[in-house]
Design brief:
The complex is a heterodimer of chains A (108) and B (880). In chain A, 59% of the residues lie in helices and 8% in strands. Chain A has 4 helices and 3 strands; from the N terminus they run αβααββα. The longest helix of chain A is centred in the last third of the chain and has 28 residues. With 880 residues, chain B is an alpha+beta fold. Chain B has 26 helices and 22 strands. Chains A and B meet through helix 2 and helix 3 of A and helix 2 and helix 3 of B.
Chain lengths: 108, 880
């Protein structure tokens, strides 16, 4: 079984699995995906994006054509490795849930 | 608060976060923050947002720092790469590296030798349980100028009865025995001890038991305890040894026990017998050594007070003059007293030597670091951090130090082995000092490696990473002169080396001079062509005086008849051996005033042949003849110069004057001759007044004698002849302490010879290292200034100008260092104290020789590279 992923990493990956997004969009998406449970504060958000980029799970997209240079936003996309990591974590969680269910059935 | 204000504040708050995020995402982060804030405001928590945001930034900062610290596995890998890099750097310059290692090895080896000596003599505990509670006990008589009189048995009995501070106390009398069995006659070392001797030391027998109190009574049956070595040697380590007998001095002793090796103390004892003294005797002889074990928690001072209190009844009865009183000292101190100053001097010397070696290595490393400034500059410029560079230098230093320490340990232990071997015969070192390798020495080697790495590593390391990059890049470009600061540090190091070397050279010189003085002291006899050996006649077979005197007379007559023997004689105590001291009355001398002290007089019994055999010269009168001593009235007596000077000061003719033993019953004896002083206690020891009595005066005292023969050829060649002659007279008598007078004299100077020689070697090493260091640094500076020299020559400078410019500065610095060192040496030499044997710390000869040597070293170290500089061709130097 692989090591668990940090929760906010998992949410960022899930969010990017739904399409390329820039930072603020990811934060809003995660808030929504988690039903308001997970708030990505700015430093956590961008720190995680840097870490994930370093790990090669997400990649920064070339700038979209935007009129204002200072207002440019960085868009991120999920890489093949990122998708694999997301799937692995999902499987891990699913296995855990399955295990927990079978145990609770036996005990009750 | 409007969004704009919030954005401004959050931007300020961003400083809490990692710089990397701030640089890359400042605007986006502000947007994200405002978004979160809007959501939160909807829920009415304005303040909490700011707290959260700040915490978020701080957390990210912490995370960032952790991210940049390299993972452990990777870090180890980097140390590995540091080591690999260091190996590569060091191997790149094999000659310089070898030189550095040799210098460190020499310095560390010298320290290992001295530390091993110090460790075994002063630090390592005795092989007895709770050895710190063991004390040496003896008596002193300051008014008779006696530091140690030996212990009087009735005194001891009194102390044993009434002390409170001692868990136990015992006496030991160093003795030796004639051991005769089917394997022949032999002389064995041993001790006569009170029954609880082993109990006080805390040793239990390997086999059998120790003595009982009943066996320590006068007229008790004869019993003996063997040493382990003796038991293995003579009895094949048999379990049935207990109960068997051993013949000592012709008497059978029943063996009751075997003692382990640790008990062979303080001499190399092979057999022990009970002392069997009577506490009720009124004997006034002082001869035993005492050991005591203090009760736990008792200090030496309070134990001594307690002992004096226990001694008080003796002052009241037998010793109303309070002349003799007991004292104690820690057992170890008793055996290492002679070595204390020597050990301190040697430790200081090797520490200085190591400092010179380290200064040398530092200079070389510094020169190298300066040469590498360009490399360091480039590495810093492309982003290496200073810590990393320092670590790499440190790894290099640590490797050099470790190699030097390992090699020094091996070399030092080997040298120590040779040293101990060379003094083994002279028995100057206590037997319990085995100098085996132990953890203390290993720890010392590790410690010294660390210390040297720090000592020589700091200067180069600081130079390597300090200063600005531009400067580093510029002044390290090839062929240009190095920065004044670098040059100053280098010359300071060399000057310091010369200063320390000067201290060592002067100290070594003074000790060598002192040794020469001691060696050239007139011993008062002719040490060449004289053979000495001892024979002890056991009471069992030589009970009467006639028989004893007849033996000595026949023996000397037969020896004299041997071809190649010029003279032969016997004496109770030959030079450099025993002491038998007494007090005498001088005819016509007023009785002593109260508080006046009477010197102890050394007494010896000699036959007429002794003086010629030993080569003692006569100052006035005559030596003994055969009739001396046999008549009961007015027996003849020979005094030494010191006796004549002490008791008849200013009188030219003392022949015919009369002397008698203390006590009114003793008869007067007439001085028939004055002999020149014989250095009985050693060449550097003070003289005591001395007397020679004819052996016939008191044949009781002639059971153990030293035989001296003067030969025409190599004296050792006569040992078999002497053995044969003795065997013909009595095959049960062993010859022992067989040695030439020359070797005995040399052995008495062995300790001094050894430490003088050691210090001389250390001084020579220091000088050599300083010379090498100075030469290396000047050469290096010349190489660095090649271009400058070329320009100067092209502009018309002459060879001697160049030489002055190149070598002048460092020469002045070295001369200054050496001069400081000479001054420091004069002060330091005072600490050598008695070791100097009267040589003044300002001895002009030694000081001028040292100054000249240092001067010559400084000149040659600077002159050779300077001349090379002066002979350079300016064309080639400028082209490079």
């Amino acid at each position: 079984m692989t090591a668990p992923l940090k929760t906010h990493w998992y949410f960022i990956l899930m969010s990017l699995a739904g399409g390329n997004r820039h930072g603020l969009a990811i934060a809003r998406d995660v808030k929504q995906l988690s039903g308001g449970q997970v708030t990505l504060w700015p430093a956590t958000l961008y720190g995680s994006l840097e870490d994930l980029a370093d790990a090669g799970w997400i990649a920064e997209l070339a700038d979209r054509d935007l009129p204002d240079e200072s207002d440019r936003k960085k868009f991120y996309t999920l890489t093949r490795a990122g998708r694999a990591a997301l799937d692995a974590e999902t499987r891990r969680l699913a296995d855990l849930v399955k295990l927990a269910r079978s145990l609770s059935r036996r005990h009750t | 608060m409007t969004d704009d204000t919030a954005r401004r504040w959050y931007r300020r708050l961003l400083r809490l976060g990692p710089r990397r995020l701030r640089d890359r995402h400042a605007e986006a982060m502000c947007d994200a923050f405002l978004d979160v804030r809007r959501n939160a405001q909807a829920r009415g928590l304005p303040a909490a947002v700011w707290v959260h945001a700040a915490a978020d930034l701080v957390r990210a900062s912490i995370h960032e720092r952790r991210r940049h610290r390299v993972a452990p596995a990777r870090k180890a890998f980097m140390i590995g790469s540091d080591v690999r890099l260091a190996v590569r750097t060091l191997r790149h310059q094999p000659f310089a590296t070898a030189l550095l290692i040799v210098m460190l090895t020499l310095g560390i080896a010298a320290n290992v030798v001295v530390f091993s000596l110090v460790s075994d003599l002063f630090i390592k505990p005795f092989p007895f349980p709770d050895s710190t509670r063991l004390v040496y006990i003896n008596e002193k008589a300051p008014r008779w100028n006696l530091d140690e009189t030996g212990i009087n048995y009735p005194d001891f009995a009194q102390w044993r009865k009434s002390n409170r501070a001692f868990a136990g106390m015992a006496l030991v009398d160093v003795a030796s025995f004639n051991l005769a069995d089917e394997r022949g006659a032999e002389r064995v070392q041993g001790g006569a001890v009170t029954f609880d001797y082993f109990g006080v030391l805390g040793v239990t027998p390997l086999l059998g038991r120790t003595f009982t109190a009943a066996e320590d009574q006068p007229k008790a049956p004869d019993v003996a305890i063997l040493s382990e070595a003796m038991w293995r040697d003579r009895f094949g380590a048999g379990a049935d040894t207990i109960g068997r007998t051993i013949r000592l001095n012709g008497v059978a002793y029943q063996i009751v026990g075997v003692m382990p090796r640790a008990a062979e103390f303080p001499s190399r004892a092979a057999v022990w017998v009970p002392l069997k003294q009577d506490p009720a005797s009124t004997d006034q002889s002082y001869s035993y050594n005492g050991v005591g074990r203090l009760k736990p928690g008792i200090t030496f001072e309070s134990a001594e007070q307690d002992l004096l209190l226990a001694h008080a009844p003796i002052f009241d009865t037998r010793d109303k003059d309070r002349a003799v009183s007991p004292f104690i000292r820690p057992l170890r101190t008793n055996f290492v007293r002679d070595f204390r100053v020597v050990a301190a001097a040697l430790s200081a010397a090797v520490a200085l030597l190591l400092i010179v070696a380290c200064a040398n290595v530092a200079a070389v490393m510094l020169a190298r670091a300066i040469a590498r400034r360009r490399e360091m500059g480039i590495r810093l410029a492309i982003g290496a951090n200073r810590g990393r560079l320092l670590r790499q230098l440190f790894v290099e230093n640590a490797m050099l130090a470790a190699i030097g320490a390992a090699a020094g340990l091996v070399l030092g232990r080997w040298a120590l082995h040779l040293l101990v071997e060379s003094v083994a015969d002279a028995q100057v070192l206590p037997p319990w000092a085995t100098f085996a390798f132990d953890w203390r020495i290993a720890a010392f080697a590790v410690g010294i490696a660390a210390a040297t790495a720090v000592l020589f590593g700091w200067a180069p390391a600081l130079h390597a990473v300090r200063g600005n990059l531009r400067g580093a890049m510029n002044d390290a470009s090839s062929g240009s002169t190095i920065s004044p600061r670098g040059r100053r540090t280098l010359t300071t190091l060399v000057a310091a080396e010369f200063m320390v070397a000067a201290v060592l050279v002067v100290g070594g010189g003074l000790l060598v001079r002192a040794f020469a003085n001691v060696r050239h002291t007139d011993p008062g006899y002719r040490a060449d062509h004289a053979l000495l050996f001892s024979i002890a006649l056991p009471d069992a077979s030589y009970s009467d005086d006639v028989k004893r005197l007849a033996f000595w007379e026949t023996l000397t007559a037969r020896l004299r008849a041997t071809p190649g023997v010029e003279a032969a004689g016997v004496i109770t105590c030959p030079p450099l051996s025993c002491h038998w001291g007494n007090f005498y009355r001088i005819e016509g001398r007023p009785p002593l005033k109260p508080g006046e002290s009477d010197p102890v007089v050394l007494g010896r019994f000699a036959d007429p042949g002794y003086f010629a055999a030993m080569g003692i010269r006569l100052k006035a009168g005559r030596f003994f003849d055969d009739r001396d001593g046999s008549a009961s009235t007015n027996p003849a007596l020979i005094v030494n110069e010191t006796f004549a000077r002490t008791f008849w000061p200013g009188e030219a003719d003392v022949v015919g004057k009369r002397v008698a033993g203390k006590g009114p019953d003793n008869p007067w004896m007439t001085v028939v001759g004055v002999a020149y002083d014989v250095k009985h206690y050693g060449l550097e020891r003070p003289m005591r007044p001395g007397l020679y009595f004819p052996i016939k005066l008191d044949p009781q005292r002639t059971s153990t004698m030293a035989v001296v023969i003067r030969t025409t050829r190599e004296p050792d060649a006569f040992t078999p002849t002497a053995r044969d002659i003795v065997r013909q007279l009595d095959p049960s008598l062993p010859l022992y302490r067989i040695n030439t007078a020359e070797r005995r004299l040399a052995a008495s100077m062995q300790t001094r010879a050894t430490y003088s020689w050691m210090l001389g070697v250390f001084a020579a090493l220091a000088l050599l290292l300083a010379l090498g260091g100075a030469y290396g640094v000047t050469s290096y500076l010349v190489t660095q200034r090649t271009r400058e020299i070329g320009i100067r020559m092209a502009l018309g400078a002459r060879g001697n100008h160049i030489m002055r410019a190149v070598a002048g500065g460092s020469f002045v610095a070295i001369a200054f260092g050496a001069a400081l060192g000479l001054v420091a040496a004069i002060a330091a030499a005072r600490l050598l104290g008695d070791l100097l044997y009267g040589v003044s710390p300002r001895d002009p000869m030694i000081l001028s020789i040292a100054a000249l040597t240092l001067f010559a070293a400084a000149v040659s170290a600077n002159w050779i590279p300077a001349r090379r500089a002066a002979r350079m061709n300016p064309v080639t130097t400028l082209k490079t």
